[in-house]
Amino acid sequence: MFIIAVGIAGIGVSFAQNSIPLTLEDLGLGEDFIESPISSYSVTLETTRVCPSPAGCKILITACLFESVDFILGPASIICKLTDGSGISDDGDPTNDKFGKVIAEGKLELAGGYVANTEVTIPITQTAFPDANKVANIKDIKIVTVGPPVT
Prior knowledge:
The protein is mainly β and 151 residues long. The protein has a single domain (2-149), classed as Apoptosis, Tumor Necrosis Factor Receptor Associated Protein 2, Chain A (Sandwich). The chain has strands at residues 2-10, 20-21, 23-25, 27-29, 32-34, 41-53, 56-68, 72-73, 76-83, 102-110, 113-114, 120-123, 126-127, 140-149. The protein has a six-stranded antiparallel sheet with strand order 3-1-14-9-10-13, with no helix packed on it.
């Protein structure tokens, strides 16, 4: 079993310039709960303006900047998922995920763990379709932190 934390935040038009405080959820597996490896954290989004033609520009979310007051023992992973806010999950069942489909994400592997109060950059490396990470497409952010296996 791995230690996992999931945080979810809604975003608005001005999110690119603001740090977003997220709430933590413990994950339940049957009768057991997996306690989050961190107590609080914040995420700031890094954006890049891309102008492929004189006719127009687009602003892409290129990374999530993660910071926590807690440390995570290694090995650890931090995943940033950007969702469309459609209210329909990846499996098509709207009751499974009220925050929508994940349409872009990035994952940062930290072999030595996460050092508290250190900002780390999670590059957005996967998109469901071209320009899925455009600011206009993103409505919510999910952060998943994974710590070492619990023995």
